[in-house]
Amino acid sequence: MTHQLPPLPFSANDLAPAISSVTVGYHYGKHHQAYVNNLNNLIGGTPYENTPLETIIAKAPAGPIFNNAAQVFNHTFYFQQFKSQHEAKKRPENELLRAIEKSFGTFDKFIDDFSKAAATVFGSGWAWLIREHDGNLAITQESNAGCPLAKKQTPILTCDVWEHAYYLDYQNKRPDYIKAFWEVVDWKVIERRFNV
For 17-66, how does the pLDDT look when each residue is reduced to its tens digit (9 = 90+)? Predict the structure, then answer.
């Protein structure tokens, strides 16, 4: 099995000004592609050679295979949740909104809590909205290639806070990037993930 870089659901310049085409080019075209290439090079001749990505993440021990598999998944999950500011659905509805309100009080409180979690990830990593085993929603932070699948959690939404996700556009102003991130999150996608 050869893993592939999945196509983007938008054009490279569709997310501007929140995320520039230059950042998309480097982040998706260079970083994401490198994780795909590295994973394919690492799994040849191993028990993971013909294994789906999610299974590799669940079973591989800490190390290069896990790191690259998780980063392929994390980046794919990240990029697939975006649309242009004009096309993105801005708020969740129905079951997802009720679940967010149950766990966080209000949608605005969720945005604030998630943004704080993303801003305070130490070093490189990810903020996640996940569904726990009991069905409740929670916000988690993961360092480096951390991925909820490794903990048998269901990922719903993620924000990449590795510097390569924002440094070309925002330099060291991570909170500015996180604020702009919400402009291009498409809640139709997040609702679909929640309802699976």
Answer: 999 999 999 999 999 999 999 999 999 999 999 999 999 999 999 999 99
Residue 190 and residue 157: Cα distance in Å, rounded?
6
Assigned domain for 85 exists: no
This model's pTM is above 0.85: yes
Do 133 and 70 lie in one domain? The reply is no
Structural domain that includes position 28: 21-79
Q: Are residues 177 and 132 in the same domain?
A: yes
